[in-house]
Amino acid sequence: MYNRALFLIYPSAGDAILLGKIIGGVFGYLITNNIWGILIGVFLGHQFDRGLSRSAGGFSSRWRVLNQARAQQAFFETTFSVMGHLAKADGRVSEQEIALARQVMTRMGLPEAARREAMRLFNQGKASDFDLDAALASFRSVTLGQRNLMQMFLEIQFFAAYADGSMDPDERHVLLHVCDLLGFSQTDFDRLDAMIQAEMHAFQDGGTSRGPSLEDAYAILNISEEATDSEVKKAYRRLMSQHHPDKLVAKGLPEEMMKLAQQKTHEIRIAYERIKETRGF
Fold first, then answer.
1. Which helix H or strand E contains 115, and what residues bound it?
2. How far apart are CA 138 and CA 130, in angstroms?
3. What is the value of pTM for the model shown?
4. 62 and 246 Cβ atoms separated by less than 8 Å
5. CA 86 from centre of chain
6. 8 Å CB contact between 217 and 235
7. Domain ranges of the chain
8. What is the DSSP string of 131-164?
9. pLDDT 10s digits, 162-200
Protein backbone atom coordinates (compact mmCIF):
# COMPACT_ATOMS: atom_id res chain seq x y z
CA MET A 1 0.00 0.00 0.00
CA TYR A 2 2.78 2.44 0.96
CA ASN A 3 4.76 1.49 -2.12
CA ARG A 4 1.89 2.35 -4.44
CA ALA A 5 1.14 5.62 -2.69
CA LEU A 6 4.75 6.76 -2.86
CA PHE A 7 4.95 6.10 -6.58
CA LEU A 8 1.84 8.15 -7.18
CA ILE A 9 3.87 11.03 -5.76
CA TYR A 10 7.19 10.03 -7.28
CA PRO A 11 6.64 8.58 -10.78
CA SER A 12 9.17 6.00 -11.94
CA ALA A 13 12.15 7.01 -14.02
CA GLY A 14 10.69 5.37 -17.12
CA ASP A 15 7.41 7.29 -17.05
CA ALA A 16 6.76 10.11 -19.46
CA ILE A 17 6.45 13.02 -17.03
CA LEU A 18 4.70 15.96 -18.69
CA LEU A 19 3.54 18.02 -15.73
CA GLY A 20 6.47 20.45 -15.74
CA LYS A 21 6.28 21.02 -19.50
CA ILE A 22 2.55 21.75 -19.39
CA ILE A 23 2.78 24.15 -16.47
CA GLY A 24 5.88 25.83 -17.94
CA GLY A 25 4.22 26.29 -21.30
CA VAL A 26 1.07 27.78 -19.77
CA PHE A 27 3.01 30.25 -17.60
CA GLY A 28 5.24 31.19 -20.51
CA TYR A 29 2.20 32.05 -22.60
CA LEU A 30 0.51 34.02 -19.78
CA ILE A 31 3.63 36.10 -19.19
CA THR A 32 4.68 36.81 -22.81
CA ASN A 33 1.52 36.07 -24.79
CA ASN A 34 3.62 34.66 -27.67
CA ILE A 35 5.13 31.45 -28.98
CA TRP A 36 8.62 32.23 -27.62
CA GLY A 37 7.31 32.42 -24.08
CA ILE A 38 5.61 29.06 -24.54
CA LEU A 39 8.81 27.47 -25.84
CA ILE A 40 10.92 28.89 -23.00
CA GLY A 41 8.32 27.70 -20.47
CA VAL A 42 8.26 24.21 -21.97
CA PHE A 43 12.07 24.06 -21.87
CA LEU A 44 12.20 25.08 -18.22
CA GLY A 45 9.43 22.61 -17.43
CA HIS A 46 11.37 19.87 -19.20
CA GLN A 47 14.38 20.50 -16.93
CA PHE A 48 12.08 20.21 -13.92
CA ASP A 49 10.65 16.92 -15.24
CA ARG A 50 14.12 15.47 -15.76
CA GLY A 51 15.13 16.27 -12.19
CA LEU A 52 11.91 14.73 -10.86
CA SER A 53 12.46 11.62 -12.97
CA ARG A 54 16.00 11.13 -11.64
CA SER A 55 14.79 11.63 -8.08
CA ALA A 56 11.98 9.11 -8.57
CA GLY A 57 14.36 6.57 -10.10
CA GLY A 58 16.73 6.84 -7.16
CA PHE A 59 13.88 6.53 -4.69
CA SER A 60 12.53 3.47 -6.52
CA SER A 61 15.95 1.78 -6.41
CA ARG A 62 16.39 2.42 -2.68
CA TRP A 63 12.89 1.12 -1.99
CA ARG A 64 13.59 -2.14 -3.87
CA VAL A 65 16.86 -2.68 -1.96
CA LEU A 66 15.06 -2.11 1.35
CA ASN A 67 12.27 -4.55 0.46
CA GLN A 68 14.80 -7.16 -0.66
CA ALA A 69 16.73 -6.89 2.62
CA ARG A 70 13.53 -7.23 4.67
CA ALA A 71 12.43 -10.26 2.64
CA GLN A 72 15.84 -11.94 3.01
CA GLN A 73 15.80 -11.44 6.77
CA ALA A 74 12.24 -12.81 7.01
CA PHE A 75 13.16 -15.83 4.88
CA PHE A 76 16.17 -16.68 7.03
CA GLU A 77 14.36 -16.24 10.34
CA THR A 78 11.25 -18.14 9.31
CA THR A 79 13.19 -20.99 7.69
CA PHE A 80 15.03 -22.00 10.84
CA SER A 81 12.32 -21.23 13.39
CA VAL A 82 9.81 -23.34 11.44
CA MET A 83 12.46 -26.04 11.05
CA GLY A 84 12.76 -26.13 14.85
CA HIS A 85 8.98 -26.32 15.20
CA LEU A 86 8.89 -29.15 12.69
CA ALA A 87 11.54 -31.09 14.64
CA LYS A 88 9.40 -30.71 17.78
CA ALA A 89 6.30 -32.01 15.98
CA ASP A 90 6.53 -35.44 17.65
CA GLY A 91 6.76 -33.87 21.12
CA ARG A 92 10.52 -33.79 21.65
CA VAL A 93 13.71 -32.85 19.81
CA SER A 94 16.36 -35.57 19.89
CA GLU A 95 20.10 -35.13 19.54
CA GLN A 96 19.77 -36.78 16.15
CA GLU A 97 17.30 -34.13 14.98
CA ILE A 98 19.63 -31.35 16.14
CA ALA A 99 22.47 -33.04 14.26
CA LEU A 100 20.24 -33.26 11.19
CA ALA A 101 19.42 -29.56 11.45
CA ARG A 102 23.14 -28.84 11.43
CA GLN A 103 23.45 -31.11 8.40
CA VAL A 104 20.88 -29.00 6.56
CA MET A 105 22.86 -25.87 7.44
CA THR A 106 26.01 -27.51 6.13
CA ARG A 107 24.28 -28.35 2.85
CA MET A 108 23.34 -24.68 2.56
CA GLY A 109 26.96 -23.70 3.06
CA LEU A 110 26.18 -21.25 5.87
CA PRO A 111 29.17 -19.45 7.42
CA GLU A 112 29.77 -19.88 11.16
CA ALA A 113 28.04 -16.68 12.25
CA ALA A 114 24.96 -17.55 10.21
CA ARG A 115 24.94 -21.07 11.69
CA ARG A 116 24.91 -19.71 15.23
CA GLU A 117 21.98 -17.45 14.38
CA ALA A 118 20.22 -20.32 12.62
CA MET A 119 20.55 -22.53 15.71
CA ARG A 120 19.19 -19.73 17.89
CA LEU A 121 16.16 -19.50 15.62
CA PHE A 122 15.85 -23.29 15.54
CA ASN A 123 15.68 -23.34 19.35
CA GLN A 124 13.17 -20.51 19.29
CA GLY A 125 10.96 -22.51 16.92
CA LYS A 126 10.92 -25.59 19.11
CA ALA A 127 9.76 -23.58 22.16
CA SER A 128 6.24 -24.37 23.37
CA ASP A 129 5.08 -20.77 22.90
CA PHE A 130 6.22 -20.48 19.27
CA ASP A 131 3.33 -19.13 17.17
CA LEU A 132 3.63 -20.93 13.83
CA ASP A 133 0.63 -19.25 12.21
CA ALA A 134 1.79 -15.74 13.11
CA ALA A 135 5.33 -16.43 11.90
CA LEU A 136 4.10 -17.69 8.53
CA ALA A 137 1.59 -14.85 8.13
CA SER A 138 4.35 -12.30 8.72
CA PHE A 139 6.70 -14.15 6.34
CA ARG A 140 4.10 -14.26 3.58
CA SER A 141 3.31 -10.57 4.05
CA VAL A 142 6.92 -9.35 4.01
CA THR A 143 7.84 -11.45 0.98
CA LEU A 144 4.61 -10.43 -0.81
CA GLY A 145 3.64 -14.10 -1.15
CA GLN A 146 5.94 -14.62 -4.14
CA ARG A 147 5.22 -18.15 -5.31
CA ASN A 148 8.75 -19.21 -6.29
CA LEU A 149 10.15 -17.94 -3.00
CA MET A 150 7.43 -19.71 -1.02
CA GLN A 151 8.17 -22.95 -2.88
CA MET A 152 11.89 -22.70 -2.12
CA PHE A 153 11.03 -22.24 1.55
CA LEU A 154 8.81 -25.33 1.48
CA GLU A 155 11.45 -27.43 -0.28
CA ILE A 156 13.89 -26.63 2.53
CA GLN A 157 11.30 -27.72 5.11
CA PHE A 158 10.62 -30.95 3.21
CA PHE A 159 14.33 -31.65 3.04
CA ALA A 160 14.61 -31.09 6.80
CA ALA A 161 11.69 -33.46 7.42
CA TYR A 162 13.40 -36.17 5.35
CA ALA A 163 16.88 -35.54 6.75
CA ASP A 164 16.61 -38.72 8.86
CA GLY A 165 15.34 -40.74 5.90
CA SER A 166 11.60 -40.53 6.49
CA MET A 167 8.80 -38.11 7.34
CA ASP A 168 6.73 -39.15 10.35
CA PRO A 169 2.94 -38.47 10.56
CA ASP A 170 3.35 -35.52 12.95
CA GLU A 171 5.82 -33.81 10.61
CA ARG A 172 3.51 -34.45 7.69
CA HIS A 173 0.62 -32.86 9.58
CA VAL A 174 2.68 -29.74 10.33
CA LEU A 175 3.93 -29.46 6.74
CA LEU A 176 0.40 -29.78 5.36
CA HIS A 177 -0.63 -26.92 7.62
CA VAL A 178 2.37 -24.83 6.54
CA CYS A 179 1.52 -25.44 2.87
CA ASP A 180 -2.08 -24.40 3.46
CA LEU A 181 -1.07 -21.15 5.18
CA LEU A 182 1.29 -20.30 2.30
CA GLY A 183 -1.35 -20.97 -0.36
CA PHE A 184 -0.26 -24.44 -1.52
CA SER A 185 -2.83 -27.19 -2.04
CA GLN A 186 -2.78 -30.90 -1.18
CA THR A 187 -1.80 -31.54 -4.81
CA ASP A 188 1.11 -29.12 -4.45
CA PHE A 189 2.12 -30.92 -1.26
CA ASP A 190 2.13 -34.31 -2.99
CA ARG A 191 4.13 -32.90 -5.91
CA LEU A 192 6.76 -31.39 -3.62
CA ASP A 193 6.86 -34.56 -1.54
CA ALA A 194 7.58 -36.72 -4.59
CA MET A 195 10.19 -34.27 -5.87
CA ILE A 196 12.14 -34.11 -2.59
CA GLN A 197 12.02 -37.88 -2.10
CA ALA A 198 13.40 -38.37 -5.61
CA GLU A 199 16.18 -35.85 -4.98
CA MET A 200 17.06 -37.50 -1.67
CA HIS A 201 17.18 -40.93 -3.32
CA ALA A 202 19.15 -39.76 -6.34
CA PHE A 203 21.66 -37.39 -4.74
CA GLN A 204 21.76 -38.19 -1.02
CA ASP A 205 21.08 -41.89 -0.50
CA GLY A 206 23.44 -43.71 -2.74
CA GLY A 207 23.10 -41.87 -6.03
CA THR A 208 25.74 -43.25 -8.38
CA SER A 209 28.04 -41.61 -10.89
CA ARG A 210 25.43 -42.43 -13.52
CA GLY A 211 23.09 -39.96 -11.89
CA PRO A 212 19.42 -40.38 -10.95
CA SER A 213 17.31 -43.27 -12.14
CA LEU A 214 14.86 -42.51 -14.91
CA GLU A 215 11.99 -42.75 -12.41
CA ASP A 216 13.67 -40.23 -10.08
CA ALA A 217 14.46 -37.93 -13.00
CA TYR A 218 10.79 -37.68 -13.97
CA ALA A 219 9.80 -37.05 -10.34
CA ILE A 220 12.40 -34.29 -9.99
CA LEU A 221 10.98 -32.57 -13.07
CA ASN A 222 7.45 -33.20 -11.74
CA ILE A 223 6.23 -34.91 -14.91
CA SER A 224 5.06 -38.39 -15.82
CA GLU A 225 6.89 -40.81 -18.09
CA GLU A 226 4.08 -40.31 -20.61
CA ALA A 227 4.94 -36.61 -21.02
CA THR A 228 5.81 -35.50 -24.54
CA ASP A 229 9.27 -34.20 -25.42
CA SER A 230 7.79 -30.71 -25.57
CA GLU A 231 6.32 -31.09 -22.07
CA VAL A 232 9.66 -32.33 -20.74
CA LYS A 233 11.47 -29.29 -22.13
CA LYS A 234 8.79 -26.94 -20.80
CA ALA A 235 8.97 -28.47 -17.31
CA TYR A 236 12.76 -28.17 -17.33
CA ARG A 237 12.72 -24.49 -18.35
CA ARG A 238 10.03 -23.70 -15.76
CA LEU A 239 11.93 -25.34 -12.91
CA MET A 240 15.24 -23.74 -13.90
CA SER A 241 13.54 -20.35 -13.92
CA GLN A 242 11.84 -20.98 -10.56
CA HIS A 243 15.12 -21.97 -8.90
CA HIS A 244 17.45 -19.50 -10.61
CA PRO A 245 19.75 -18.34 -7.76
CA ASP A 246 19.98 -14.68 -8.81
CA LYS A 247 16.22 -14.39 -9.34
CA LEU A 248 15.51 -15.94 -5.94
CA VAL A 249 18.00 -13.67 -4.18
CA ALA A 250 16.38 -10.64 -5.83
CA LYS A 251 12.99 -11.82 -4.54
CA GLY A 252 14.21 -12.43 -0.99
CA LEU A 253 16.36 -15.57 -0.73
CA PRO A 254 19.26 -14.80 1.65
CA GLU A 255 22.58 -14.77 -0.15
CA GLU A 256 23.86 -17.25 2.46
CA MET A 257 21.41 -19.78 0.99
CA MET A 258 22.35 -19.22 -2.65
CA LYS A 259 24.39 -22.43 -2.59
CA LEU A 260 21.19 -24.39 -2.00
CA ALA A 261 19.54 -22.83 -5.05
CA GLN A 262 22.64 -23.61 -7.10
CA GLN A 263 22.48 -27.23 -5.98
CA LYS A 264 18.82 -27.39 -6.93
CA THR A 265 19.43 -26.14 -10.46
CA HIS A 266 22.33 -28.60 -10.78
CA GLU A 267 20.08 -31.52 -9.78
CA ILE A 268 17.31 -30.36 -12.11
CA ARG A 269 19.80 -30.14 -14.98
CA ILE A 270 21.15 -33.64 -14.31
CA ALA A 271 17.61 -35.06 -14.19
CA TYR A 272 16.78 -33.38 -17.49
CA GLU A 273 19.95 -34.69 -19.12
CA ARG A 274 19.05 -38.21 -17.94
CA ILE A 275 15.64 -38.02 -19.63
CA LYS A 276 17.07 -36.30 -22.68
CA GLU A 277 19.68 -39.02 -23.13
CA THR A 278 17.06 -41.76 -22.86
CA ARG A 279 14.71 -40.10 -25.35
CA GLY A 280 17.44 -39.04 -27.75
CA PHE A 281 16.37 -35.45 -28.37
1. helix 112-125
2. 13
3. 0.72
4. no
5. 20
6. no
7. 2-63, 64-279
8. -HHHHHHHHHHHTTT-HHHHHHHHHHHHHHHTTT
9. 877 788 899 999 999 999 999 999 999 999 999 999 988
